[in-house]
Amino acid sequence: MDEHDLADLDAGATAVQVDSRSGARPQGFVLTVAEGPDRGASFELVPHHPSPYLIGQSPSCDVRLADRHASRRHASIEIAPNRIVVTDLDSTNGTFIDGVAIGTAYLRGDETIRIGATTLRLARRSMEVAPPSSHGALPGRGFGRVVGTSRELGRLYPLFQRLAASDVPVVIEGETGTGKEILAESIHEASARSGGPFVVFDCTAIPATLMEAELFGHEKGSFTGATATRKGLFEQAHGGTLLIDEIGDLELALQPKLLRAIERKEVRRVGGTEPIRVDVRLLAATRRDLDKAVQEGRFRDDLYHRLAVGRVELPPLSKRKGDVATLAHHFWKDLGGAPGGPPADMLARWERAQWPGNVRQLRNAVARWIALGELGEGLPGEELEAGRVADAPPPSSSGQQVDIIEQVIAQRLPLPLARLRVVQDFEARYIASVLAEHGGNVAKAAQASGIARRYLQILRSGKRRGG
Prior knowledge:
Elements: H1 3-7, E1 16-17, E2 28-35, E3 42-45, E4 53-56, E5 63-64, E6 75-79, E7 84-88, E8 95-97, E9 100-102, E10 104-107, E11 111-115, E12 118-126, E13 142-143, E14 146-147, H2 151-154, H3 157-165, E15 170-173, H4 180-189, E16 198-202, H5 211-216, E17 217-218, E18 230-231, H6 233-236, E19 241-245, H7 255-264, E20 266-267, E21 276-277, E22 281-286, H8 290-295, H9 301-307, E23 310-313, H10 323-334, H11 344-352, H12 358-372, H13 404-410, H14 415-437, H15 442-449, H16 453-461
Parallel strand pairs: 4-5, 15-22, 15-23, 16-19, 19-22
Antiparallel strand pairs: 1-3, 2-3, 2-12, 4-6, 6-7, 7-10, 8-9, 8-11, 11-12, 13-14, 17-18, 20-21
Helix pairs in contact: 3-4, 10-12, 12-14, 13-14, 14-15, 15-16
């Protein structure tokens, strides 16, 4: 990536290296290397940082060490309101606080952290920490279609805005269902490329043998079944944004070709001889730990460095305090729930739940309640995959008014299957209605529904994954 691209993010998601001669008075804490290859280096750790500081050898780490005994992502440090949280990230050689091996430890300053052959000294620099600016911890209810007022998510909004204003590649990390694709689309819509296409390539949905042709296109006759020339997703995304979803599952053999396309800004179709210039911003999403994949040889180091110019980690819903209620009300309104919002007792149960499927699972729960009322009050762990009800008859497509609940009850299905059968019917009718309202325009229908375009297509095809 060009130097001016790197400058677009300046200190957006990294620790600030401190020049001890500058006389500046940083706030928060300072981490100084007392022993090891990086001896003398110092890093400022400030409150309200968008994500925990990462320590290790990886270029993606905020505190990067040259110590070969340190793991790529060795440990993390989070500056909480009244303490510092240090967590070992399953490192090879362990993390030690004042000589004691730890998994997670809570510090207050003036401790030593041992990582490999490196000793880091943590010290307070100022007890007076400036409060976040008006665009800091709680800047509003969301960014684009990313919704939430929690401090855990709110402190990321300024970073989202900076990423949208730049044109650098970005890796979006997070558990399944945290909204990685929604964030990617929101970054696109807030960027200078918003007038261009937003194209998604899902590495888990394409057979390995077809991945190259899907990304780069193919010429007629280049392989069996190639009956016509076809543009690949890079060409389709020209002038806009290409999201490579679940990039941690990208075939290893295809990775150098993707790297070459990014570096040269050109692609060559399968069976073609001429390079084709493309102007595409690349975003990548993953539920996997790419640093670990690099370490294990499953992901190319040079490709990761190209992609992770910007990096953001979306927190799971269980760590977003207060966002369950905010999101429940948001989904309730978007899905056409009755005035007044979700019932108080149901909302209280949702707020106590852990939501392993994150935001996507909460949205499904709200949709079930709107469709079924008390019959749809299932909590996390009660959902079944759509494939489990394959024997159930499809939603009625006739012009007659059918009471779907009575129809399902008559089938004498077990309650979980009956519940999901009704939800499927509701989803099919909802998607058909919203598409009709917007003249079949998938992008506008998805935006009105509060979901990503690809997920709308999944619901439309009836091949929804559970939770």
